Amino acid sequence: MTRAGLVTYALALGVAAAIPGPGVVALVARALGSGFGAAMAFLVGLILGDLTYLAAAIFGLSLIAEAFGTAFVVVRYGAALYLAYLAFRLWRAAGSAGRFESEARDRPLTSFVAGLTITLGNPKTIVFYLAILPTLVDLRGVTAADFVTLVIVTAAILLAVMTPYAALAARARESLRRPAFRARLNRGAAAIMAGAAAWTVLRRA
């Protein structure tokens, strides 16, 4: 893998990650509803989902992905249902934001699984790694060292691009301490999460 190819991949991934999609929307909603810690656990799940598809593309599993397209549809609908469930919880917790925040922070695994599930069911992610990536990198020439480099670069770029979304949303949340504002934030986050659920179902790869 050439340096030019790596740079091209990094730039393309950065642009793709920065464009708001189900992952970004859900991350912001998570930060608004549950705080920065829960959002970062969610982000770790998002990154692992991306790395899963990266590995699938490099190790030739794209053919399997095409053959079992129905499985990806199931995952996508599962992610949408989970987003809808989170939206429901956020809306119900609008009147008791403090209690909901404590529950969310005590369960980082829940946020992690949510991030992973949403990424695995995100058509945008599937298209990038199984269709666009092969046009940016010669996958036949990728060595073990190249793969490790791609993993590190992918994780670093996603972390750098997505963390500001979570930080800004969490800061906005923490700056509004009054219960009335917290209730509005939770309802707003619930609306965003519900919209992401609908977007995940309606959008096609």
Explain this structure to me?
By secondary structure, the chain is mostly helical. It is 84% helix and 0% strand. It is built from ten helices and no strands. Helix 2 (22-34) packs antiparallel against helix 7 (108-120). The radius of gyration is 18 Å and the shape is elongated. The two termini are 28 Å apart.
Q: How does the major sheet shape up?
A: none
β content, as a range? under 5%
Shape: elongated
Secondary-structure element order, as H and E? Answer: HHHHHHHHHH
Radius of gyration: 18 Å
Structural class: mainly alpha
Distance between the termini: 28 Å
Helix content: over 70%
> How would you state the average pLDDT, rounded?
76
Quantity of strands, as a count: 0
Q: Can you tell me the residue ranges where pLDDT is under 50 for at least 5 consecutive residues?
A: 97-106
Number of helical segments with 4 or more residues? 10
Tell me the layout of helices and strands.
Elements: H1 3-18, H2 22-34, H3 36-58, H4 62-67, H5 69-92, H6 97-105, H7 108-120, H8 123-136, H9 144-174, H10 179-202
Helix pairs in contact: 1-8, 1-9, 2-3, 2-7, 2-9, 2-10, 3-7, 3-8, 3-9, 5-7, 5-10
Quick overview:
It contains ten helices and no strands. The chain is mainly alpha-helical.
Quickly list its features:
elongated, 0% strand, 205 residues, 10 helices, 84% helix, mainly alpha, single chain
